[in-house]
Amino acid sequence: MNFDYQYHGSSSVSNSASGTGMNFVPDATREPTFFRGELSHKLPFREAISALHDVVVSDLRWKPKDREDYKAWAQEQEDIWIAEAVAEGQQAQARMAEVNDRLIEMRSQRAAVMQPFYEARQKYFNHLYQVNKDYWFVLDPVITVHPDCVFFECFSQDESTYGRLACKYDVFQNVGEFACGTTNIDYSDSLYQEFQKIRGYKTTQFAIDPSGFEAKTEGEDAYKEVKIDLPDSWVRGFLQVSSAMTLPAATVELHPMDVHNICFMLRRHKEKLGPRSLRFILKPGQPVTLRFDPWNYEVRCPRSIYHGSEETEVRIWGRRRLLTLQRLVPVAKRFTVRLLGYGMPSFFEADLGNMIYTLGISGWTANDWSRMGNFDLMAPRQQVDQHTVDQVYAGLKATWFAEPDQLASRLGLDRSIVLGALSLLTQAGRVIFDAHDGVYRVRELSREPLSFEQYRYANEREQKAYDLVAAGAAQVWVEDQQGRKQMKGRTNFNGYVHETKLTIDADERIVAGQCNCNFFQQNALRQGPCEHMLALRIAHQRKS
Predict the structure, then answer these.
(1) What's the pLDDT tens digit per position in 331-345?
(2) How far apart are CA 55 and CA 327, in angstroms?
């Protein structure tokens, strides 16, 4: 997908003995979005925005060792090794030594000749890394201005980690005029370095500069145009994060010192063999226990009591991504952890007073958000026509954020219809769910609404489910149990019979399931429901 950005200049930070001015330059091709204010919580903001930068530059994908030099050397040595193997007599050995000496001399001469090139290339790469981040990162952070807060969003380079920093207006004083909306901001590495100069005794001005939208034609040269061909995985990853935030989860509150202990264990110990998981052992009314594999080291959290109703153990992978939380430990009041399940994504929220920093990590590092999650398939799937979707979006944009019940009451629509429309809008990149406040917020990921059909399907399972229903191969029986729907049924297609069970909560979300198909036996719900579960759900919707 091609994204075109146009910035009127570059984001900058100006420092003096008495104050700091931070000026973010937004994308001038979007609708006007701007904000001005003076930071009152300077140090927590500095640490939070720096932690967000740690997410942007994070890339924990396995990288093979560069063996090109060894291969080149081995190729050069091959003739010598062959000569050594077949050489006979003193004359052949003398000739071989002479050739070997000549080769050594030539290699030293080549190294001397190429050294200026290697130095110039490295200098260029260093310059490129500092000056033009667009060649290193696929997208600048997304920033959204709302009536009650400003929030930044970003993805890591390996697309397995999501970062979000929401700043309530209490973080600022002397707030000036602002215009709500979403835009991309020009965010360079030099800007990050300037953030480190923020001090508590200095006045810090924060601005998303509205002048980027006011330049006339004669100032066109001042614009910096950036055209980036984004992979679909980046866009789909944002959509999957939004869908995963709506799913039910086990919630744990951790004291900042407990998060410090997690980071301390990860820094002190480096595993060489798997498993590389972190286990949350949760017992009602008792302190949370953390177990680090493969050493079976346990860390008890006496300050963090689990208040859930059921005993459970949740295991997550890719734990080294949690090291991006280190900077927040001194300034955080508490951390709230939302665990979606065994091998499922998890969200770590740092409460910084009037700021909320959210770190979302996928089930494991190699499992990025876009390819294997498919959490949108577990979201509410009520059939909603386009007119109703537009009506719900217009109602939400009137206040910019709202709870589903409030929106349903205001629009006079059934709650399930509103949830279905919000799910479609989330998957189209127009709405995001704020798990901390429990509201849906308008957030246009791109200037033009994304193609729902293009990003809805990351695989063929849902399409297969519709094919099963169209062929009359799905039978379903439904029981209502304490606000939940218990679905039982079978699919019979081409001689294959699959017995399936499904549990849907009051918010029309899939929370549990069982099937005897191969996909479910291998993955459970960690990669979303199988086509047989989806077929039961679709068949029930068409009957009701």
Answers:
(1) 999 999 999 888 788
(2) 12
Cβ atoms 358, 163 nearer than 8 A: yes
Q: Are 426 and 246 in contact (CB under 8 A)?
A: yes
| pLDDT tens-place string over residues 421-474 | 888 888 778 889 998 888 999 988 776 666 555 545 545 787 788 888 888 888
Q: For the chain, how many helices (H) and strands (E)?
A: 13, 26
DSSP code of 219?
G
Q: Which structure tokens are listed for 147?
A: 């009536």
442 exposure class (CB count in 10 Å sphere: 0-12, 13-18, 19+): buried
Ordered strands of the 431-434 beta sheet: 401-402, 439-442, 431-434
> In whole angstroms, what is the distance from residue 373 CA to residue 360 CA?
13
- Rounded to whole angstroms, the Cα distance separating 453 from 461 reads 14
* DSSP annotation string for 319-350: GGGGGGGGGGTTT-SEEEEEE-STTS-EEEEE
What is the per-residue pLDDT across 347-376, written as a single tens digit (0 to 9) for each? 999 999 899 999 999 887 766 675 555 666
For 17, the 3-state DSSP assignment is: coil
Q: How far apart are CA 376 and CA 240, in angstroms?
A: 6
Distance CA 320, CA 55 (A): 12
What's at 52, amino acid-wise?
L
Coil, strand or helix at 3: strand
Partnered with residue 39 across adjacent β-strands are 172, 204
Residue 324 confidence class, pLDDT cut points 50, 70, 90 = very high
Gap between the Cα atoms of 438 and 425, Å rounded: 16
Contacts of 382 (CB under 8 A, 6+ apart): 416, 417, 419, 420, 421, 423, 508, 541
Residue 208: CA count within 13 A, CB half-sphere: 27
